[in-house]
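TICKET #2291
ISSUE: user wants both folds in one file
ATTACHMENT 1:
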Amino acid sequence: MKHCLIVDDSAVIRKVAKRIMEGLSLRTSEAEDGEQALSLCREEMPDAVLLDLNMPVMDGYEFLRELRRMPGGTGPKVVFCTTENDVAHIARALHAGADEYVMKPFDRDIMTAKLQEVGVV
């Protein structure tokens, strides 16, 4: 079973994402900031990461740069989630190593399409 790490400082977003991911037969783990997420990645590298960009402690951009430098860190497909619809934010995340993006709020259909695009489901 593929593993998706959900990284978001919002417990509500994590809960919604977890329900969607588990409905797609993905095993999930959760982190509320980038630092916690890196720690989880050191324990077990996920197949996919659903990543919020704006978080306390370590934001999504910094997490993504660090993830991609880790052994095996180029493997996970990273879909970043944002409320920002500014092209500059999207370009910055893609440049940092994200594979795809989704706008909040998202639903099962949108998330399924994005995960299919990157080959996770």
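ATTACHMENT 2:
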Amino acid sequence: MHHITLLGRPGCHLCEDAREVIAKVADELGVTWEEIDIDSSGELRDKYGEMIPVTLVDGVQHDFWRVSEDRLRAALA
């Protein structure tokens, strides 16, 4: 079973776009997902701060800045 993590921050318009794509794909495929505020961890902020939103699939970086619905579906297939 796969798991998607969205790293973002409040007020980020790209994060809002990513959230919509992830929620749609996860719902259709029955995949769990979570969103983590990148500012909740200094380590996450240092590693990904300029790349948000960042999408992780099973803990591995998958996309950043934009989420491709097709690429996400392929990664979860």
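RESOLUTION: both attachments delivered.
EXTRA DETAIL ON ATTACHMENT 2: The beta strands are 3-8, 32-37, 54-57, 60-64.
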